[in-house]
């Protein structure tokens, strides 16, 4: 891919220049950067990071609607990685812009202070999401009108039956129910950023070594050091760990961070790399997806029989909780193809011309990128919305058309949430000068 030389540092939390996957963000000499637009002219927005993160938000909504037919067609059904990888990787890239600049301009202490403030925001987003969802599930159960218990469907019985220790666990992050596990993981990974920025002063090799060692601490069995690695407790009454182990998932976050920060150079655009990446995605599918494996089995029993033993052999490499390396490789291959497809600066995403199709795509791109820009607000809203859509579907026969209508209604609502969040962030009540 042609090198991208424009990477202006935005003032907002959401980046205005980014890449969808491994965008070329190497530190370029000053001569490579285009001069700032004259007369206060706005820079052209690179849509790639926001576009792919927006796509992830739609997938995450689909994935969390209980009993949703559409979950059979999300990325998780066709390979090792899924929308979680998109979310974490893009969050790392966005953090490099939003927080990396603070470390560079104001020093380590002020950069750390900004990260702490963001962690504070994410923590209260997590607490608010939990209480809202718990309240809505309790409200449904209190009606007595439904055969199923919506509280128990999220395994929240312990919280309502014995709230005191669970409240302590909720606020200390030692009680993390499965449905509420992404934001705590993101919070802990964010908290590792000051460590990595401090190690950068020693050398980039120390950052890479630290990330690799933290990942190994979560996955010691990969080098024969025992069955259990570093993890965090998810509930006081059992030995269950967090479903998303932040010590494993930080590897992907800081990979995205490193690409956007310029610590890692962008890979070259190469026909050979494109073919290798595509081949890996296609031929690994039966090893990472039961859906595809069953298709292979229906087509050729002998081939399926040859593939089946690999599922047990690669179990640790496919591990989602601790972030197995096959998930890492699968996502990087997918990200590379997405980056190449988008073109330098995301130019292939931007429609040219005035045809009806071009205008339609421009409209869709604006909507998707808006959802990506407001990812935290949209994520929290979608997680609450998914349970309510699931409840609504429970009152129907879950037919194809009804399910489609429910998903499309959900899409419209998260789009509305994104635009509303952007409107509030613009502080429209302030007097314009």
Structural class assignment? mainly alpha
- Whole-number average pLDDT? 87
Low-confidence runs: 1-44
Number of strands: 0
- The portion of residues assigned to helices is 55-70%
Form type:
globular
Please work out how many helical segments DSSP would assign. Answer: 17
Summarize the biggest pleated sheet.
Answer: none
Organism: Phaeobacter gallaeciensis
Protein name: Membrane protein
Keywords: Membrane, Transmembrane, Transmembrane helix
Transmembrane segments: 51-66, 86-104, 124-146, 166-190, 202-222, 242-260, 272-293, 328-350, 371-393, 399-424
Core attributes:
transmembrane helix; disordered N terminus; 0% strand; 433 residues; transmembrane; UCP028704_OpgC; mainly alpha; Membrane protein; single chain; 17 helices
Word description of this protein:
- With about 425 residues, this protein is mostly helical.
- It has one domain (about 45-425).
- The protein has 17 helices and no strands.
- The protein has helices at about 50-65, 85-100, 100-145, 150-155, 155-160, 165-170, 180-190, 195-200, 205-220, 245-260, 270-290, 290-300, 300-315, 325-340, 355-375, 375-395, 400-425.
- Helix 3 runs antiparallel to helix 8.
- The chain is globular.
- The protein starts with about 45 loop residues before the first helix and ends in an 8-residue tail after the last helix.
- Keywords: Membrane, Transmembrane, Transmembrane helix.
- This is Membrane protein.
- Pfam families: OpgC_C.
């Amino acid at each position: 891919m042609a090198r991208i030389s424009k990477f202006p540092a935005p003032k907002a939390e959401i980046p205005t220049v980014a890449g969808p996957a491994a965008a070329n963000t190497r530190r370029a000499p000053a001569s490579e950067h285009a001069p700032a637009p004259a007369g206060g002219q706005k820079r052209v927005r690179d849509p790639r990071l926001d576009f792919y993160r927006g796509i992830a938000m739609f997938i995450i909504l689909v994935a969390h609607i209980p009993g949703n037919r559409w979950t059979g067609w999300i990325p998780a059904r066709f390979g090792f990685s899924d929308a979680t990888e998109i979310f974490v990787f893009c969050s790392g890239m966005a953090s490099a812009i939003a927080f990396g600049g603070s470390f560079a301009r104001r020093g380590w202490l002020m950069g750390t202070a900004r990260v702490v403030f963001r962690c504070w925001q994410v923590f209260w987003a997590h607490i608010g999401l939990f209480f809202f969802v718990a309240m809505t599930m309790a409200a449904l159960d209190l009606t007595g009108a439904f055969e199923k218990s919506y509280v128990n469907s999220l395994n929240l019985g312990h919280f309502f039956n014995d709230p005191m220790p669970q409240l302590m666990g909720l606020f200390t992050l030692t009680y993390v129910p499965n449905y509420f596990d992404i934001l705590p993981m993101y919070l802990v990974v964010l908290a590792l950023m000051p460590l990595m920025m401090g190690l950068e002063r020693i050398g980039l090799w120390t950052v890479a070594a630290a990330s690799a060692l933290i990942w190994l601490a979560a996955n010691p069995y990969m080098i024969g050091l025992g069955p259990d690695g570093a993890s965090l407790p998810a509930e006081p009454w059992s030995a269950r760990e967090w479903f998303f182990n932040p010590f494993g998932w930080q590897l992907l976050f800081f990979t995205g961070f490193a690409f956007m920060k310029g610590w890692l150079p962008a890979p070259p655009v190469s026909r050979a790399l494109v073919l290798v990446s595509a081949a890996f995605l296609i031929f690994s599918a039966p090893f990472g997806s039961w859906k595809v494996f069953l298709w292979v089995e229906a087509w050729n029993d002998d081939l399926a029989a040859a593939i089946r033993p690999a599922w047990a052999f690669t179990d640790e490499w496919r591990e989602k909780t601790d972030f197995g390396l096959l998930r890492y490789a699968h996502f990087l291959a997918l990200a590379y193809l997405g980056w190449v497809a988008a073109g330098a600066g995301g130019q292939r995403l931007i429609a040219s011309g005035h045809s009806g199709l071009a205008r339609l795509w421009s409209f869709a791109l604006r909507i998707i990128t808006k959802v990506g820009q407001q990812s935290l607000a949209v994520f929290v809203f979608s997680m609450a919305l998914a349970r309510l859509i699931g409840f609504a579907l429970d009152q129907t026969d879950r037919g194809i058309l009804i399910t489609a209508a429910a998903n499309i209604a959900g899409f419209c609502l998260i789009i509305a949430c994104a635009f509303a969040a952007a409107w509030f962030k613009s502080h429209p009540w302030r007097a314009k000068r």
